[in-house]
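Chapter summary example.
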Amino acid sequence: MAVTWTRAWWRWTGGPTTRPVERVVRVDGRSRADEPDDERQAFGRWVRKRPRVDGGKRRGDGCGRRSLSPTWVLAVGGPQPAGRGGRVGGVGRDASRLAGLQRRLQGIAGGLAVYDEAPDNVSSSTYSSTPSLPGCRVAPGRRADAGLPLARVTSNRIDVEALAAMDGVGRFREVLPMLMDPVAFAEAFVSGDAAGGCRVPSRGMERHRATLRSCGVASDARSRPAFAMKAFTTPKKDGRTARLVLDARPLNDAMRRPPSMDLPRLRDFIAEVERHRFAMQCDGVSYFYQFPVDASISRYFGIGMKGCDMLLNVLCMGWSWAPCIAQRASNVLVRDLGLAWVDNFLVLGGTLDEAERNVAVFRKRAQAARVEVRAEGDDALWQVRSRFVCVGVEFDLAAETQRHRLDPAWAERWVDGSGMTAVLSGRATARQFAEVFGGAVWATDILAVPRCHFAALLSFAGRLGGRMVGAAAPVWDEVVDVPPSARRELGALRKIVRENPWVVGGVPEDTGSVLWTDASSRAWAALLEAEGRFVDGRQGVFAGPDADAHINLKEMLAFAEGVVRLCWAPGAQRCRIDNAAVVGAVAKGSSSSYAANRVLSRSLRVAERRRIVLCPDWVPSGGQLADPYTRGTSLPRFPAQLPLPRSRATPFDLF
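The structure predicted for these 655 residues follows.
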């Protein structure tokens, strides 16, 4: 079956005038001259229209009028009689032909792609990958992964009751009924109706039926499951085996959102590890599959298969509640001993003796709850080390100052991967960009690189994410154009990751000064406090485009002026800001606004050159000492006494 692009004129009363085709995907044309610049590039310049298969007229389509705008149409297959008037390019006589064609397209090359704009050599280009049709849903797993055997799955089952007895906080006991109590499970449905009825068949999973039976992960369904969902496999990091994942979106959509996972933030995780000198690392063997599920609940975790459906007897990987249950169980095992990252356990100690004592306690807990663990990589189980790799981070606790960096093996895969090459070339699939961008977020967190330095990359990722979330059937193998500015920033980050420098932990000494910044609708002010007095300050009036900016951007501009003009001493610089959005952006190093990221990037680069660590704190507007100087009050002669806070601020507000 050939897949070619051809140009045609479009009118609603007939098909393309160049040649009849079996199926046409209409793409609204707009010239490249109409595109905005790459930093504000809006998606949708080539808008796909959903096909009309019923032959009816739609309101607002201008039926009966001739539309002579040029259109790129996708011709699939050999010549066929054009459809009746009002149908999109001769779809066929009824919807069944369209459904059959969709199945034929999904079976070619194992992947789908949509080209949102016409290729340069449109007239005669033939593509090896098959464009998808509007409304086709793409399997999250790649078809190439179906040939990999399933990784070794343990038949061990955790004693969840014993684990709940160890839970001194009660966080695991809070979610345990979702595994053992069918009444509590049914109450988690949003509509209150847990009847289900969804059935989505899986492709290529019959070959794993015997493996799933032998290890007790799944069993044949004796009656129709409440939810029979699509299963697929994804390759593990060894590249030789695959893990089973269930596309549990139908079940997730029917249930309420799970509570917090209690997963530590990555920066807090790294900071806690670097407070110690020794650690023991291990991970759970097929950790999710060690959690048993009550037989009355397993009917909700069905796998749609040919012949006979199967039921998962263990925690479903793909269910929205599964990570929360696994993480809270792991926190019980490492409580007061170390940290856990889902199925990765890290037992810590300030001295070798303390670490070995903590390891002994952890072993007793794991044995009492029947949790099967194994060593990471080539390490011996229960071995205490000072240099190790955990959750993609290499730690060196034996150095004079504890330090960390990216796992060199992971960094090499990310830098030289095929996804990176495709993104830097400018045309990559949405899946490739998502994988590369996820690695970029991970790398910036570990290497302590503020993400505001990559404003164009963040902006493009936000627009692409919004487009996928808003789509009825997001196509992850759709080809997207990555703007040049985003590619330049990604190339700069790629260079940093290739170097993979060590990051030294700890907080520098306090500078002893406090920076106060504030902005009003027309003016800004920044003052530096030291030893109970104002020692320096600046103020100004917004002009030009800044005068009409959002108040959050004006507050960010005031903060940037204060950092650039007033902060010179190296160390930890405390900042007092009464705008929560600015405080959050400075704390995490990025904002959701492209303009705010550009301003924040300028101030953070200045701080980096001066070896300043910015420590923002929020204060209420009544306690903002810089506020009077944004409302017409002139700056005092320095040094000056601190003004009293406004009367409406209470002592509790000030602290």
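To summarize the output: The first strand starts at residue 3 and ends at 9.
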